Amino acid sequence: MAIGMKERAGYILLYAGIMSIAWLPLWILYGLSEGLYVWIRYVLRYRRKVVRDNLTASFPNMSEKERLRIEKAFYHHFADYIVEVVKLAYIGKEEIQRRAKLNNPEVVNGLFEAGHTCVVLLMVHYGNWEWFSASQELLEGETYQIYKPLHNRAMDRLFIKLRERFGSYGMKRNDVFRDMVRIKQKGQRAVVIFLADQRPALANVHYRTSFLNRDTSMLTGAERIARKLGFPVVFLDTRKVKRGYYTVNFELLTDKPCEMPENWITEQYARRAEACIRRDPAYWLWSHKRWKYV
Q: Measured by CB atoms within 10 angstroms of the end CB, which terminus of the chain is less buried, N or C?
């Protein structure tokens, strides 16, 4: 959809501002991140109550000192995430593929070789999920990332440009099923990435399970689409190796989704996502209002 003159001007100014910073080397951007951390945590106090409530409920047996350590590490990482997203506007493909590494793309490519045309990838808001858009070209198919359009049109256009810079495509959340049916009909090789640890709308709560010590409603759209269209499902286990470096291991959940019991895929996702977060909690998006509806 075209945007108006005012929104276009806002986008140009926003993009120019991003580019004026993005050309800086990462070591300088990480220096800026230290100041951003102070601003976000101590001045703005960005969703600090949400973060603390989430950590307290998720780790009730953990000492307050340890939860505060995770909180501090989370805000440091969140500041890093922001400058890393900015850097997406001005970073080479080889560098970002080195920093966001796919350890075993043969898991997905093997599914294509076995005759599957589309693979559902389930990811978590963990580490830096935006950086992996460049590494997806190691997979033998077009990459689609599901997204919810932002209210700010200029910001929405900017994120689309950053995510599609290395050849992946955005897929609007409300168009997912229709677009994936079209992919199946065309017989094209493709992967579709679902960030499935979000909160479903209250009217779309179809399955609940225990997740991070809480009764949690889970998104089931990825499973329902996979079962209807017969697409294999793969979990992306993400790790932060060190500052500015991430890896993903592909873990096949099933290549026969129609044969799995209802909600089995969603439950498997919940268990693996939880294990990923518990392994090193600071790098999950604790500021997200995941349990707004309980």
A: N
DSSP 255: S
Model pTM above 0.90? yes
Tokens matching residue 71: 């909180």
Dihedral sign for Cα atoms in the order 93, 129, 19, 79: negative
Domain ranges of the chain: 5-283
Question: Taking a C-beta distance cutoff of 8 angstroms, is the pair 243, 255 a contact?
Answer: no
Q: Quote the pLDDT of residue 24.
A: 96
d(CA 2, CA 84): 28
| 20: confidence class by pLDDT, cuts 50, 70, 90 | confident
Inter-residue contact 85 to 130 (CB < 8 Å): yes
The mean pLDDT of the chain is: 91
pLDDT tens digits, residue range 62-90?
999 999 999 999 999 999 999 999 999 89
Residue 217 CA to residue 205 CA, distance in Å, equals 6
> What residues have CB less than 8 Å from 256, skipping those under 6 apart?
232
Q: Quick check: 260 and 254 in contact, CB under 8 A?
A: yes
What burial letters (b/e) apply to 215-253, b meaning 16+ CB within 10 Å? ebbbbbbbbbbbbebebbbbbbbbbbeeebebbbebeeb
Give the DSSP H/E element, type plus range, for residue 209: strand 208-211
Distance from C-alpha of 163 to C-alpha of 175, rounded to nearest angstrom: 18
> Across the chain, how many H-helices and E-strands are there?
11, 9
Lowest-pLDDT choice from 56-65, 194-203, 246-255, 272-281: 194-203
Cβ-Cβ contacts under 8 Å for 188 (sequence gap 6 or more): 117, 118, 141, 142
On whether the CB atoms of residues 123 and 169 are closer than 8 A, the answer is no
> Residue 47, class by beta-carbon neighbours within 10 Å (0-12 exposed, 13-18 middle, 19+ buried)?
middle
